[in-house]
TrEMBL record:
Family membership: Belongs to the thiolase-like superfamily. Beta-ketoacyl-ACP synthases family.
SUPFAM superfamilies, per database record: Thiolase-like (SSF53901)
Pathways per UniProt: Lipid metabolism; fatty acid biosynthesis
EC number: 2.3.1.179
Name recorded for this polypeptide: Beta-ketoacyl-ACP synthase
Gene3D superfamilies documented for this protein: 3.40.47.10
Gene source species: Mesorhizobium liriopis
Length: 423
C-alpha cells in the first residue's frame, strides 16, 4: 500500500486524467505521436491578413469550429475539449465532476470583430457612448458576457458540474502551472477530494501578434515556419505565438484508490516566486527562477539529483533560454550534465496561458511512455548553454521524476515536480 500522505503529512495528489489539444492535433494520442516524431505544428497564418507584419507564422489551432469566432469562443472550446478528454479518462461522470475548477486563461477583451460590428451600428454620438448604445440595442447580454474575465470558467463549471465558485487566473506564461498548483493546494488542505485544473489560450489574434512584435519578442523566421522555434540554439530569435489547451484531473491518492481509478502520475511539489524587476525582462541573476525551482524541489521532498528529466520553459528567446540555463546550473550544479532537458515549444510554439498545463501533461506522458520528446531545430548549439537538450530526435528513457518550468512575463515563475508513481 503506497503512502497516502506525503513527507509533510499532506494528502498525496494523483493525476487520474489528462486532456490535450494543440496545433499538432486534438487529443493526447495525436499530440504524443507528433511530439515524439519531432513534428512541428507551426505554420503560416491564414486566419487574418499578415501582409505588413514582421511575423507571419503561428502555432494557431485552426481545426476547431470556433477558430474563426474570436479569442473567447476559441479559448472555451480548447478548454472544454481538453477537460472532456481528461474527465473521461479519469472515469468520473462527465457532467457531475463534483470538485472545484481552476482555469488559466488569457485576459479577455472585446474581440475586434465585435468592435467593428458595434462601431458600424446606428448613428449619432461617436466614441464610447455610441458603442454602449449599440450594445444595448442588441437586446442580448452575450456580447457583455464575452468581455468578462470569468465567463469561460463559468460556462465550463456549468458544463462539467464543478462545485463552488470557479477560479479564473492569469499569471502570464506561468498561468497553466499556477492553475495546477491551486488544485494541488485545495486537495492538500482537505477542501476537496478532487480538482479540475485547465490551461487554455485561443488568443493568437492580430492584435496580440502586433503587441508581441512591438516587444521584439517574436521570431521573424517566416520562410520555413516549422524551423522558427529553436530553443537553446545560438541563432534563436524569439518565440512563436501559439494556441492550445490542457487539463488534468487531480485527485487525492486515497480517493483515486478507493474508486479503483488508474493513477497516471503524482504531483509531488509546487514552487512559485514572483519579482518586480521588469514587465518583460528576466532578472539578470536568475534569482526568482532559482528560488522557484528550489521551492518546488523542497515541496516535493526531493534532492536535485533525484530529477530524471526537465521539461524546460524553453521559449526560444535569447534572454529567457540564457536565464533558464543559469537557474538550472545554479540549482543542479554538476548533476545537470546527466539530466536530459527538452522544450515542447520547439514544436508547438508558446501557448502563453496554456503553456504550463500543456507541458505538465506532456511531462506525465513522458513518464508513462518512457520516451522523451526532443528539442527540434537544434542545429546550431549555443556554447554558452551547455545542456543535453535531447536534440532533434526523441529518446527512450526511464523517467521517474520530472521538473516542469514555467517562467512568465512580469517575473511570475511556477515550477512543478511530478513523479511516475507514489512513494
Amino acid at each position: 500500500m503506497p503512502n497516502l500522505l506525503d513527507h509533510l503529512g499532506r494528502p498525496v495528489v494523483a493525476v487520474t486524467g489528462i486532456g490535450l489539444v494543440t496545433s499538432l492535433g486534438k487529443g493526447k494520442e495525436a499530440n504524443w505521436e507528433a511530439l515524439t516524431a519531432g513534428r512541428s505544428g507551426i505554420h503560416a497564418i491564414t486566419r487574418f491578413p499578415v501582409d505588413h507584419l514582421a511575423t507571419r507564422i503561428s502555432g494557431m489551432v485552426d481545426f476547431l469550429p470556433s477558430s474563426e469566432l474570436g479569442a473567447t469562443a476559441l479559448t472555451y472550446e480548447l478548454a472544454e475539449t481538453a477537460a472532456g478528454e481528461a474527465i473521461t479518462e479519469s472515469g468520473l461522470p462527465l457532467e457531475d465532476f463534483d470538485g472545484p475548477l481552476f482555469l488559466a486563461a488569457p485576459p479577455v477583451e472585446l474581440d475586434w470583430s465585435a468592435r467593428f460590428f458595434l462601431n458600424t451600428r446606428g448613428e449619432g454620438e461617436k466614441g464610447t457612448e455610441r458603442l454602449l448604445d449599440a450594445a444595448n440595442a442588441t437586446g442580448s447580454d452575450e456580447l457583455f458576457a464575452t468581455t468578462q474575465f470569468g465567463t469561460v470558467a463559468d460556462r465550463l463549471s456549468d458544463r462539467f458540474g464543478a462545485t463552488g465558485l470557479p477560479i479564473t487566473l492569469s499569471t502570464a506564461c506561468a498561468s497553466g502551472a499556477t492553475a495546477i498548483q491551486l488544485g494541488v493546494e485545495a486537495i492538500r488542505r482537505g477542501e476537496a477530494k478532487r480538482a479540475l485544473a485547465i490551461g487554455a489560450d485561443g488568443s493568437a489574434t492580430a492584435e496580440a501578434l502586433i503587441r508581441f512584435s512591438l516587444l521584439s519578442a517574436l521570431s521573424t523566421n517566416n520562410d520555413v515556419p516549422e524551423k522558427a522555434s529553436k530553443p537553446f540554439s545560438k541563432d534563436r530569435d524569439g518565440f512563436v505565438l501559439a494556441e492550445g489547451g490542457a487539463a488534468l484531473v487531480l485527485e487525492s491518492l486515497e480517493s483515486a484508490l478507493e474508486r479503483g481509478a488508474t493513477v497516471i502520475g503524482i504531483l509531488r511539489g509546487c514552487g512559485e516566486k514572483a519579482d518586480d524587476f521588469h514587465r518583460t525582462r528576466s532578472k539578470p541573476d536568475g534569482s526568482p527562477a532559482i528560488a522557484a525551482v528550489r521551492a518546488a524541489l523542497q515541496d516535493a521532498g526531493l534532492a536535485p539529483q533525484q530529477i530524471s528529466y526537465i521539461n524546460a520553459h524553453g521559449t526560444s528567446t535569447p534572454e529567457n533560454d540564457k536565464m533558464e540555463h543559469l537557474s538550472l546550473s545554479t540549482v543542479f550544479g554538476e548533476h545537470l550534465r546527466g539530466i536530459p532537458i527538452s522544450s515542447n515549444k520547439s514544436m508547438i510554439g508558446h501557448t502563453l496561458s496554456a503553456a504550463g498545463a500543456i507541458e505538465a501533461a506532456v511531462s506525465l506522458l513522458t513518464m508513462r511512455h518512457g520516451v522523451i520528446p526532443p528539442t527540434i531545430n537544434y542545429d546550431n548549439p549555443d556554447p554558452a548553454i551547455d545542456l543535453d537538450v535531447v536534440p532533434n530526435k526523441s529518446r527512450e528513457a526511464e523517467v521517474k521524476t520530472v521538473l516542469s518550468n514555467s517562467f512568465g512575463f512580469g517575473g511570475q515563475n511556477t515550477c512543478l515536480v511530478m513523479a511516475r508513481e507514489p512513494s
